[in-house]
Specification:
Largest interface: A-B, 56 and 34 residues
Oligomer: heterodimer
Distance between the termini of chain A: 12 Å
CATH architecture of chain B: Up-down Bundle
Largest sheet of chain B: none
Number of domains of chain A: 1
Radius of gyration of chain A: 22 Å
Helix content of chain A: over 70%
Number of domains of chain B: 1
Structural class of chain B: mainly alpha
Order of helices and strands of chain B: HHHEHHHHH
CATH class of chain B: Mainly Alpha
Strand content of chain B: under 5%
Number of strands of chain B: 1
Shape of chain B: elongated
Structural class of chain A: mainly alpha
Number of strands of chain A: 1
Radius of gyration of chain B: 20 Å
Helix content of chain B: over 70%
């Protein structure tokens, strides 16, 4: 291939840029609920995000990356001209990056996931042909954008209801919080460990199967549970906050829980969204390295690494400011609510990551927030904003597509 | 890059604290009626005048709070309580302050003074009415606890107990009102008829304050039932 190295360098740069953008902007949404409810400080949020976004990207990001890389476009017709796919993926990265830059500047609720999928589909239609798009798979992905917020909403509703039943509406909310919160912690640890083990670890060369997986996940869950118990025991409660209610103290316990769900959220976000940046990069890298179109080749770990580094860089350079702005504005969310939202969103996103579905973390989180709202848990939600958020992806798809087509022709003019 | 964020825009301003602070001002306003009636009984018209201005100022403050809350309640807001219940509750709360100002206005404008035989009882009626108003404020102040528990369990029981007490306090004002009317009836022949007419109107207005305080509570019962 003539420009092999050039292509690869460009792909790495674009991929890094995209990952940087995700770290700078997107991560804030994943962390904001924890910061807003004052469960963690901004500094802690940055540390948690850095560690767990990176871990999520490396340990559980492979499945979604594969989908972005080779699940959307069928390249079997391309045969002798693999460059087309290289250009296309580069164009898709540029298109999604540009659109996100514009959108986040304007404050529009645009998802990285929707942008990149729209861009890839757009390029494939023009660059290869209508038939090259795997419409079945694309349909599944688009459906998952509807079902993921729904699932998160239902989960959040149920979890909040269980919190009400077991803790909030009882006569001794504080005692019950101490008793039941560790089990919620176990649940969070177990789910995330399970999905990671079953779906993620093979990319790092580790495979645990069947019963072993359940055992390991249980062990992880238990470990996190004891960590949570330890943290709760260290808490100091104000005795006479209110005779009838101890909610201030109860919320303190949930703050501990939110510290852990913040980790889960960062992990989930890393596992799903890293693919938006490195999926196209992975496609380019595999063509350049082998010189041909191979649908089989495994995902090299260094690519996941590029994504992880990009996210952490974006977070370090710009994310702090965004987390600060978003977090300080979300003050209406108390830890008990924030916990329900994060647990449901993180679970949904990690499950989607395991199946290999690229979904929007933010939309999932919004779905979860609505779920708690349905259970009469949040004092006021702006439905207009919700409408805007869910409408945005309908617009993002064609715009991403058109931009990708434009960049595709520009790149072809430059290189061919 | 991100100048605005939609996730933070998702969370609307909670109407709970503004509703509570409105009721606090209303309660303060109604409580001033005790001062008004005590000064009236003493025949201190200057002091009555001063209290009247205080009441008018508080009523104005409550009015402003009402308007701000209404402006910050767009129709797209999704809340655990019905928007209509909230607005109704706000309206009734505001009515309490309006009535207090009307009463003070009549007392000042007509230089009203209850006859000795009735003035003690009149103060008693005002105090009982203020007590119902305090109780209504207590109920309104439970709203954040209700939201914390998602309108379930312990908090609901606490509020229900408060509502029962509110009912009892209101019945008490009814009882005093009947006695006050009969006190007044026994001496009214010796008084200037127009003044007596206004005295009955003041009594009626005070009783209406107690009624409305109970209505504030009833709104809450409706919110609980949903």
């Amino acid at each position: 291939m003539d420009y092999g190295t050039t292509y690869l360098v460009l792909a790495v740069i674009f991929g890094l840029f995209m990952a940087w953008g995700i770290g700078a902007n997107d991560v804030a949404n994943a962390m904001a609920t924890s910061v807003g409810s004052k469960a963690i400080t901004i500094k802690q949020a940055i540390m948690i995000a850095a560690v767990f976004e990176f871990a999520g990207a490396i340990l559980a990001g492979g499945q979604v990356t594969s989908t972005i890389r080779k699940g959307i476009v069928d390249v079997s017709d391309l045969g002798a001209t693999p460059e087309v796919l290289v250009m296309g993926m580069l164009a898709a990265l540029l298109a999604a990056g540009t659109w996100l830059l514009v959108a986040s500047h304007k404050g529009w609720p645009v998802s990285t996931t929707h942008s990149i999928v729209g861009s890839i589909v757009g390029f494939a239609i023009v660059g290869i042909g209508m038939d090259a798009v795997q419409w079945g798979k694309v349909g599944t992905i688009v459906m998952s954008w509807v079902t993921s917020p729904l699932l998160a909403a239902v989960l959040a509703f149920l979890i909040f209801r269980s919190v009400q039943k077991l803790i909030l509406e009882t006569n001794q909310p504080l005692e019950n919080a101490k008793k039941y919160v560790p089990f919620y912690i176990f649940f969070v640890g177990f789910i995330i460990a399970m999905v990671t083990i079953v779906k993620g670890l093979k990319h790092v060369g580790l495979e645990i199967k069947g019963m072993d997986a359940i055992l390991v996940a249980t062990a992880v869950g238990a470990a996190v549970m004891f960590l949570g118990k330890f943290l709760i025991q260290r808490l100091k409660f104000e005795e006479s906050d209110n005779k009838d209610f101890h909610y201030h103290n109860v919320e303190k316990i949930f703050s501990v829980l939110m510290l852990l769900t913040a980790c889960a959220m960062a992990f989930a976000h890393g596992s799903n969204d890293v693919a938006n940046a490195i999926g196209p990069l992975a496609a380019v890298a595999s063509i350049v390295e082998s010189g041909e179109l191979s649908q089989k080749s495994a995902l090299p770990i260094w690519i996941l690494f590029v994504g992880g580094v990009g996210i952490v860089l974006g977070l370090a350079m710009y994310g702090r400011k965004v987390i600060e702005t978003v977090g300080t504005k979300i003050t209406e969310l108390t830890p008990s609510r924030g916990f329900c939202c994060e647990v449901s969103a993180a679970t949904t996103v990690v499950l989607a990551s395991g199946i290999g579905l690229p979904i929007s973390t933010t939309h999932t989180l919004v779905g979860a927030v609505l779920g708690v709202g349905m259970a009469r848990g949040i004092s006021a939600l702006n439905l207009d904003v919700v409408r805007g958020i869910f409408m945005s992806w309908v617009i993002t798809l064609p715009i991403g597509g058109v931009l990708a087509i434009i960049f595709f022709y520009i790149l072809q003019a430059v290189f061919v | 890059m991100a100048s605005k964020n939609y996730l933070s825009g998702l969370f609307g301003a909670s109407p709970v604290a503004p509703l509570q602070s409105h009721m606090t001002v209303v309660d303060e306003c109604v409580t001033k009626l005790i001062d008004l009636f005590e000064n009236m009984a003493k025949g201190d018209t200057d002091a009555v005048q001063v209290v009247y201005h205080e009441i008018a100022a508080l009523e104005q403050k409550a009015d402003d709070k009402k308007h701000t809350l209404r402006e910050h309640l767009p129709t797209g807001l999704f809340m655990p309580i019905e928007r209509q219940d909230l607005l109704d509750s706000l309206r009734v709360q505001d009515l309490l302050a309006n009535r207090a100002r009307d009463i003070a206005g009549i007392v000042v404008g007509r230089k009203l003074q209850f006859p000795e035989q009735a003035s003690e009882r009149a103060i008693e009626l005002v105090k009982a009415t203020v007590a119902t108003c305090h109780q209504a404020l207590k109920v309104v102040n439970e709203l954040d606890e209700l939201i914390e528990t998602g309108f379930r369990g312990h908090a609901v029981r606490v509020v229900e107990e408060m509502l029962v007490e509110l009912d009892q306090l209101e019945s008490e004002t009814d009882r005093i009102q009947v006695e006050l009317r009969s006190d007044l009836f026994s001496v009214e022949k010796d008084l200037y008829a127009v003044d007596v007419m206004f005295m009955y109107r003041v009594i009626e207005s005070i009783a209406e304050i107690a009624d409305d305080a109970e209505r504030v509570g009833r709104r809450f019962q409706q919110m609980l039932a949903k």
